[in-house]
């Protein structure tokens, strides 16, 4: 052995970037179980997002507004195009559709309480309207889904708006899924399904296909509700320019655009991570479609999918949205994935912050479950208060940024207030790379 | 006895007038003339009244009907009686696709043929079709009964849950997880009751019908059944 060889240290074990630890574990899991991975939540991979944008505060060339003194409006009115009774919200942050069934009745009640305290709306989901939610929600949007679980004209008339769900960001082109563990007696009754079966919702609506039919369907819903309710159309972000065009053509009052970071109660991991586009990439094409039709601000645009704080709100609005919706973040505010349940998360083989087996109904926080002992852990009054606090903080943060940009209403934010930190974000958001006037790819989609 | 002429009255005025009816209204017999294939005629009615429509209707006639008896003296477009809760809708002609879609209760009678997806996602409605039905009928049917005097198209009862299907004529093919099932006495009794309700019990012999329903093999995921999807 040479001197050099005797001093040689073994080569550091090298793992493959392609076959990383998660990938290897997933191959083993698939081989052992013979079924794809199902989970809740949205895309976990990093995608270009609002953190890749910065806001340009006022300086020599712009006047700022005084924080705490000068007004910065936050109100938004949704459904001004056709509805006799548009929804007037105090803040432009709404609660996204989440079903009773995937969530406990207490969680739904807490969402309603929190939203009402903050002056905003909440939304039903693929499981019908519960009295708990209707009772506690000042503004309740009633989802009209392919499954039509729990759909009935009485609840339709109790709603403040109707949201026709074409798709969602976690799974554009996919239907709902609620596995047998969560089909309790009450959930089974509301969905008119046998208890304990795996419920796979349809991905297409049963009585219309295509935008021409949708126009007729919207008209029917307006006739049933005497043209009172705003009608939203929700789409998962995939082809936002054309989807927005068609939604406007179909007669929508409001368009809800959900990026791939938007959560789901349960679907295949492969679907969540590989279908759809990030919200950052979806807003400008949707706004462009509205502008091309002369309908920007006339048909309102709500965007969702990974909205976390007031900065995200301000940036989304600056790109042209009228409001945002939150789902995952609202559940976290209620208490989802809270470290106080660390020991129990570990028993489930996971850790706070990573728990996503929402479909199994074992949520230690009592939110994504139908098990009575677990549900009791969530106090709907206290959780609603937490959500209201969080919504107010988001609004204050967004106002802070808007005032810094010299805007006296959140809707006065504009793309000109933004720059991008990365080439990808600059191209997707169509704002210049910071310090330059370069917008990669400007001129077309 | 209100008579509404849709050639001179707007659809919106008609539907609003129907929505204003109290459950105990004395105006229990309505006649709608010149429907002209218009969509969404008599949708969301919530009173036990009779509505005679003198002609063909477009999409979603009688949608979400509750308690009303709607008689269409013509053919109906897509989604007739969609999501109806109760009452009766009687189509004297043919019905287009998705007839009775997601219906929760009441009865839909089609004297002629019904097109594709008849009774799709049905949740408690009873549907009697005196002619044939198209493909993918009773798709994901959760509850209720579908009775067909004639033939059924391809993929009958695909992904069906607990809806029960009775067909007298040939079935082109059965969809995923749908099988022919034994006709027992309780099923013959159920079928007879449906035929009586549709006023046809004297014309057809229940012995000629065969019953179809869920094999319930897709109720809980099993990788060995993945080929059925």
Q: What this model shows, in words?
A:
The complex is a heterodimer of chains A (445) and B (229). With 445 residues, chain A is an alpha/beta fold. Chain A has a single domain, classed as Aldolase class I (TIM Barrel), CATH 3.20.20.70. Chain A contains 16 helices and 16 strands. In chain A, the strands form five sheets. An eight-stranded parallel β-sheet of chain A has the order 5-15-14-12-11-8-7-6. Chain A has a two-stranded antiparallel ribbon with strand order 1-13. In chain A, helix 8 links the parallel strand 11 (231-236) and strand 12 (254-258). In chain A, helix 3 (105-118) packs parallel to helix 15 and helix 7 (210-224) packs across helix 8. The longest helix of chain A is centred in the last third of the chain and has 25 residues, at 380-404. With 229 residues, chain B is mostly beta strands. Chain B has helices at residues 11-19, 185-197; strands spanning 3-5, 29-33, 50-54, 69-72, 88-91, 107-110, 123-129, 143-148, 164-167, 178-181, 210-214. In chain B, strands 1-2-3-4-5-6-7-8-9-11-10 form an eleven-stranded mixed β-sheet, covered by helices on one side. In chain B, strand 1, helix 1 (11-19) and strand 2 form a beta-alpha-beta unit. Chain B is elongated, with a radius of gyration of 18 Å. The mean pLDDT of chain B is 96. Chain A binds chain B through residues 33-35, 147-148, 151-153, 156, 179-180, 192-194, 196-198, 200, 202, 206-208, 213, 216-217, 219-220, 223-227, and chain B through 11-12, 15-16, 19, 39-40, 43-44, 46, 58-60, 63-64, 66, 78-79, 82-83, 85, 98, 101-102, 104, 117, 120-121, 123-124, 139-140, 142-143, 159, 161-162, 218-221, 223.
């Amino acid at each position: 052995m040479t001197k050099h060889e005797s001093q040689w240290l073994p080569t550091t074990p090298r793992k493959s970037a392609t076959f990383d630890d998660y990938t290897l574990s997933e191959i083993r899991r698939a081989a052992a179980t013979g079924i794809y991975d199902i989970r809740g939540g949205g895309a976990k991979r990093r995608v270009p997002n609002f953190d890749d944008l910065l806001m340009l505060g006022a300086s020599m060339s712009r006047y700022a507004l005084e924080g705490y003194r000068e007004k910065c409006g936050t109100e938004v009115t949704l459904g001004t195009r056709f509805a006799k009774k548009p929804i007037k919200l105090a803040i432009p942050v709404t609660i996204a559709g989440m079903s009773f069934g995937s969530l406990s009745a207490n969680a739904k009640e807490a969402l309603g309480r929190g939203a009402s305290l903050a002056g905003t709306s909440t939304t039903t989901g693929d499981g019908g309207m519960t009295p708990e939610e209707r009772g506690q929600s000042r503004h309740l949007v009633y989802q009209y889904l392919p499954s039509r679980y729990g759909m009935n004209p009485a609840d339709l008339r109790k709603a403040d708006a109707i949201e026709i769900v074409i798709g969602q960001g976690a799974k554009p082109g996919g239907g709902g899924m609620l596995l047998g563990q969560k089909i309790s007696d009450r959930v089974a009754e509301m969905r008119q399904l046998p208890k304990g079966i795996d419920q796979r919702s349809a991905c297409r609506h049963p009585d219309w296909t295509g935008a021409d039919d949708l126009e007729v369907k919207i008209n029917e819903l307006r006739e049933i509700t005497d043209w009172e309710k705003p009608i939203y159309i929700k789409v998962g972000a995939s082809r936002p320019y054309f989807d927005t065009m068609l939604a406007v053509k179909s007669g929508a009052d409001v368009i809800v655009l959900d990026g791939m970071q938007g959560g789901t109660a349960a679907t295949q991991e492969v679907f969540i991570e590989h279908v759809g586009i990030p919200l950052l990439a979806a807003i400008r094409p949707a706004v462009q479609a509205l502008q091309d039709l002369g309908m920007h601000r006339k048909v309102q645009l709500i965007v969702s999918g990974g909205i976390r704080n007031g900065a995200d709100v301000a940036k989304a609005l600056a790109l042209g949205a009228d409001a945002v919706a939150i789902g995952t973040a609202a559940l976290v505010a209620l208490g989802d994935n809270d470290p106080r349940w660390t020991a129990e998360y570990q028993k489930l083989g996971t850790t706070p912050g990573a728990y996503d087996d929402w479909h199994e109904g074992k949520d230690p926080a009592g939110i994504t479950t139908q098990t009575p002992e677990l549900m009791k852990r969530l106090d709907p009054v206290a959780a609603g208060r937490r959500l209201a606090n969080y919504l107010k903080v988001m609004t204050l943060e967004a106002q802070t940024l808007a005032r810094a940009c010299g805007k006296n209403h959140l809707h006065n934010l504009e793309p000109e207030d933004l720059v991008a930190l990365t080439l990808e974000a600059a191209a997707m958001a169509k704002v210049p790379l910071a310090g330059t006037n370069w917008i990669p790819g400007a001129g077309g989609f | 006895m209100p008579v509404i002429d849709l050639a001179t009255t707007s659809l919106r005025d008609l539907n609003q007038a129907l929505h204003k009816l109290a459950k105990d209204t004395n105006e229990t017999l309505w006649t709608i003339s010149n429907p002209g294939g218009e969509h969404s005629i008599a949708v969301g009615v919530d009173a036990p009244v009779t509505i005679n429509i003198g002609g063909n209707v477009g999409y979603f006639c009688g949608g979400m009907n509750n308690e009303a008896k709607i008689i269409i003296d013509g053919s109906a477009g897509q989604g007739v009686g969609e999501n109806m809760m109760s009452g009766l809708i009687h189509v004297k002609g043919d019905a287009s696709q998705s007839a009775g879609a997601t219906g929760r209760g009441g009865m839909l009678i089609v004297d002629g043929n019904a097109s594709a997806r008849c009774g799709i996602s049905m949740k408690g409605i009873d549907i009697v079709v005196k002619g044939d039905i198209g493909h993918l009928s009773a798709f994901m049917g959760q509850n209720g009964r579908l009775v067909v005097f004639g033939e059924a198209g391809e993929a009958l009862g695909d992904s069906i849950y607990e809806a029960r299907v009775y067909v007298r004529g040939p079935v082109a093919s059965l969809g995923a997880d749908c099988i022919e099932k034994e006709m027992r006495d309780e099923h013959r009794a159920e079928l007879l009751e449906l035929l009586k309700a549709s006023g046809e019990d004297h014309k057809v012999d229940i012995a000629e019908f065969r019953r179809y329903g869920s094999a319930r093999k897709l109720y809980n995921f099993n990788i060995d059944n993945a080929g059925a999807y």
